[in-house]
Amino acid sequence: MSSILTAKQRKFVNEYVVSGNATQSAIKAGYSEKTARVTGQENLLKPAIKKAIEERLAGIESKKIGDAKEVLEFYFRVLRGEEIEEVPMSTADSVITVTKKPSIKDKVSVSKEIMKRFPLYDPMEKQKLKKLTADARISEAKAKAMEDNGQDIEQLLDKMMDNLAKEDLKHGSK
Prior knowledge:
mainly alpha
C-alpha cells in the first residue's frame, strides 16, 4: 500500500476491501458519520487511494485464483499418483475415511487434459499439421507454376509431387 496515505486513508482502504461499502468504510476508518457518505465517495476518487485499493484487490485475487502452471502441476501430480484423495466409507457402525491414490480413469482424464495443452504430441494434431503444411506447399507450387507461363503445368505438378514424396520419406513419413 502506498506510503503517501494517511492512517485514516489506509484504514479506509482496508475496510473498503473487506466490505465494498464506501460509507461504512469511512465510518470505521474514523471519519464523521455525518459526512461519511461524501467522504467515502471522495476517497474512492483520489488516485492514491484508488491505486491502493486496486493493488490490494489484485493481491487477493492472485492468491485465490490458480494459474495455468498450478493447474498443470496438479495434473502431473495426479498422473504420477502423487495426489491422495480422502474417501468416506460407511461401515455397520460409523463412517470412516480412507485415502486412495488416483485411479486409472483419473489418470486417463488428466492425461487428456494435458494433451490438450500440448497438441503437437497428439498424433491426430500432428497429422492435421502435416496436412496443412502439405496443402500450403501444393498451393505455393501451383502459384509458381501459373507464374511460369512457358512451362507445362502438369510437368511442374508431377515434379513438385515427387519432391514432396522425397521429403516425406526423408522425414520418416509414409
